[in-house]
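Standup notes, protein team

Yesterday: finished cleaning the Eisenbergiella porci set.
Today: Multifunctional fusion protein structure.
Blockers: none.

Input for Multifunctional fusion protein:
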Amino acid sequence: MNKKKGIFTLIAFIVILAGLGYVSIFGVGENKSGSASSVKQGLDLAGGVSITYQVVGDEAPSAADMNDTIYKLQKRVENYSTEAQVYQEGSDRINIEIPGVSDANAVLEELGKPGSLSFQDSQGNVVLEGTDVADAQAGYQKNSLGNQEAVVQLTLTEEGKVKFAEATKKAAPTRDIIYIIYDGSVVSAPAVQSEITDGSAVITGMGTFEEAETLASTIRIGGLKLELEELRSNVVGAQLGSAAIRTSLMAGAIGMAIVMVFMIAVYWIPGVASSLALCMYVVLMILLLNGFEITLTLPGIAGIILSIGMAVDANVIIFARIREEIATGKTVKSSIKIGFQKALSAILDGNITTLIAAAVLGFMGSGTVKGFAQTLALGIVVSMFTALVITRLILNAFYAVGMQNEKLYGRAKEKKPVNFLSKKAVFFTISIVLIVAGFVFMGVNKGRTGQSLNYSLEFIGGTSTNVTFNENMSIEDIDANVVPMIEKITGDGNVQTQKVQGTNEVIFKTRTLDVTEREELNNTLADSFGVDQEKITAETISSTISGEMRREAVVAVVIATVCMLIYIWFRFKDIRFGASAVAALIHDVLVVLAFYAAVRVSVGSTFIACMLTIVGYSINATIVIFDRIRENINLEGKSELNGLVNKSITQTLSRSIFTSLTTFIMVAVLYIMGVSSIREFALPLMVGIVCGTYSSVCITGALWFVLRTRIAGKSKNTAVKVKSR
């Protein structure tokens, strides 16, 4: 790149950044398309529609039928938003909350009447109910021509098996059609080819796999065991309130500004390049969140924070490499080129490993987990693009316009290796003590309160209190004047608030309240705010994170961990790298869990996002160290393994500290400026960042060394000889 091209590149970048920045702030057209304000937001940030259904019939529904109905409705409403919530209210009611929607009637019309799936013959006789289908999955099978075609595979219950065998026996001779009808409309009309007696059927004729998935989903979620009718519907406001959102955005902006100043102060010209690339990252994220219509919630913001940390991390790795090359006597131009080349493997491995986890969580998870995975995956892709493409482009342009003095880029200083491995017994002991202490705290909490952790209503349910005030209070007024009073009565620091738009009604969700607490709350509301106690109603509500969702989250995390282990094994050709990385992840989760138990931080929907963020952050830091160990093994050939590991950790130490510091700054500002619910999310996340850095630097390398020497059966001073790549 010559000087003229460098000037053109910088001007073009500034123009593009300014243009995209304008769109992300002000949008395009009357609807402000593409702007930050038009990003779909969850219930906690923007509110939405709340619909309450009641079970039809005089008999009380069983717990199993209620759980089955809630789970299937959860899957159905996720078509509107991954952040939609479905939970039980009282003994026979189900509440649905869908964020980002303001027209309850439109939702009711689109959602239809739950539980109206049936299979009918050509005469209109119902031959199979939706509840007779145990499962429906999209798949592929070979057709008569030997080609793969999309199909829907049905598995019937024992009762359904008998019904379907009789129906297909009658229809098979004339290849009659059995219609699948949902909400009064035919969604599929397959012809019966033969009698089916084994309770397993295949629907062919799907145009695409997506069409098969849609039909399978309709069949799965359409067969509700309970008949429901609408009881009420409301449009509810944001749970956090506009002031909380403004302070969170301001905190994010301040944190990012501090990070940019830090990068410029430490890395000079490369720091300026990374700061400009980080601005482009933020703009692109806003535009892509709009483009992909991703619903943004507090857990989603966690995914973005993590991806910002990874974007800074990639730049730190690159800049450290450039300084190392300059220190060997190479020119700045050559050092920039080689620095990006040498940093590539660590950046790709770290980001791809986290991307694998995000993909598994997005595919298998639901609700909060899926929303987190979507924003994290998008953030990872954008962060890699800005670090590897935008930063490189700007840095080369700076060099081309005349910023060629190596003093503007810095020179790595020779560092004496720190003997981390000599302290491995101390590090292992500290970790074991912290983890054991966590279990002790959980045991003490279990004996004292009946709960090992301070579970919020998202996990164990609680009480929903509907209060009609005499005046139209804003969420900010309610948070300032009413919520502290409720927290004092209930001892619950995680009170959730929703305001029914167009009315003076406010819904307070707390832990489960007994009769005495309810009476005290009612009396206090009446005395302090003049509320008519007859206009106060309370209902017991179930957890918004159902047992099925929790199981899905656990299974998704386990599968994601296994996939990460396999990828690391494949990339590093040594399963001990993967085993050490996974052990570090488990270590970080258990230490943060110990913090939750000791400090009694509320365990709610953000708990899952917090843990997933820590896992993603920790694995990325570990990969960087392992990448340097792999590189040094290949470069040095025969070498003392003990010294090689210490050298590798020392070489990446500044990267570990700087990346952790920048990410910590982002979260710390969020903690200082945020409301209580945001602070309860940010506090353990800060602990996780510190813990993840500690485990990556002090635990993973030492653990790999122990596994390598013990399994190989060699002494501590094992020499290793590997062919160069």
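Follow-up from PR in the comments: Confidence is low (pLDDT under 50) at residues 713-725.
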